[in-house]
Description:
Layout: H1 5-32, H2 37-42, H3 46-69, H4 73-97, H5 101-106, H6 110-130
Helix pairs in contact: 1-3, 1-4, 3-4, 3-6, 4-6
Amino acid sequence: xxxxxxxxxxxxxxxxxxxxxxxxxxxxxxxxxxxxxxxxxxxxxxxxxxxxxxxxxxxxxxxxxxxxxxxxxxxxxxxxxxxxxxxxxxxxxxxxxxxxxxxxxxxxxxxxxxxxxxxxxxxxxxxxxxxxx
Length: 133
């Protein structure tokens, strides 16, 4: 519970940095992927929403761990950037396993999107756990 103004300011700074990192993650991730998630989501392609949403959670998990476990704002930003890299690598891994990933997500294949999302979550959970060491 936030009980002092100092704690509220610390919360606000962490929240602003986290919001910035989430925006940066979405910008980088959607740039790196070969399909336009937001255009597909606007067309109600559930597979795009599912894969992007799960990857966002996969990023948010280590970001929350970084917020809890870091002492400086620089450390928070560095670990947030590492979390972005891990998610990009997870996406790249799935692209290696499924070279036609982009077409399959654009075609609305839920199984493919779920697999990508599961890999993203797994990477995020492992990344988050590693940050607590």
